[in-house]
Amino acid sequence: MPFRVVNATTIFMDYIYRIFRSFLDNFMVIFIDGILIYSKSREEHLYQVLQVLKEQQLYANLGKCEFCLEEAKFLRHVISKEKIIVNSSKVEALIEWKQPHAITKIRSFLGFVRYCMRFIKGFARIATSMKCLMKKN
After folding, report:
1. I want to staple 23 with a disulfide (CB 3.0 to 4.6 A). Which of 19, 28, 40, 71 is the partner?
2. Pairwise CA distance, residues 39 & 87, whole Å
3. Taking the alpha carbons of 57, 63, 69, 75 in that order, is the dihedral positive or negative?
4. What angle do CA 67, 13, 124 make, to 5 degrees?
5. What keyword terms does UniProt attach to this protein (predicted)?
6. What is the pLDDT of residues 5-14, one digit of tens each?
7. Which pLDDT value is given to residue 117?
8. 52-89 as b/e, with b when 16 or more CB fall inside 10 Å?
9. Under a CB-based contact definition with an 8 Å cutoff, are residues 109 and 71 in contact?
10. If pLDDT is split at 50, 70 and 90, which confidence band does 57 have?
11. What integer pLDDT is reported at residue 51 of this predicted model?
């Protein structure tokens, strides 16, 4: 296994995806070191995940774990059984964002809102217009 820091996240993600392959998109979502279990059978699926972690000698930081939530914040979204919405703090930041005039500011703005594009009607049209502003001349 290569030990260069630049590869660490990629190698870790590959390993985690391999050991949880059968769980992914059935009752589990993973992003780097964040695991979200969504389930009607909480105890069974939680047990399965914890069992795999134990077998692979991986450990969860229980101080950072939250169990049996009706609503969870995960990857800048608030997820419940009824809906997925953008975290309100991100919406506030978007509303307070000053109008970008420089190309670097437009790129920064587009990067910030890209994660919530599925919640913005006509996002592709808006983003295309902004990308045109970044072209030379």
Report:
1. 28
2. 22
3. negative
4. 90
5. Membrane, Transmembrane, Transmembrane helix
6. 677 888 888 9
7. 77
8. ebeeeeeeeeeeeeeeeeeeeebeebebeeeeeebbee
9. no
10. very high
11. 93
The residues, any chain, with a CB within 8 Å of residue 23's CB and separated by 6 or more, are 45, 48, 49, 52
* Token couple for 53: 């972690």
Which domains, ranges and CATH numbers included, belong to the chain?
Answer: 7-84 (3.30.70.270), 87-133 (no CATH)
32: left (phi over 0), alpha (psi -120 to 50) or beta: left
Long-range contact list for 94-98, CB < 8 A, 24+ apart? none
Question: Could you write out the three-class secondary structure of the chain?
Answer: CCCCHHHHHHHHHHHHHHHCCCCECCCEEEECCEEEECCCCHHHHHHHHHHHHHHCCCCCCCCCCCCCCCEEEECCEEEECCCEEECHHHHHHHHHCCCCCCHHHHHHHHHHHHCCHHHCCCHHHHHHHHHHHCCCC
Question: Which pLDDT score is estimated for 21?
Answer: 93
Span 92-104, average pLDDT: 84
Q: What is the mean pLDDT of residues 68-79?
A: 81
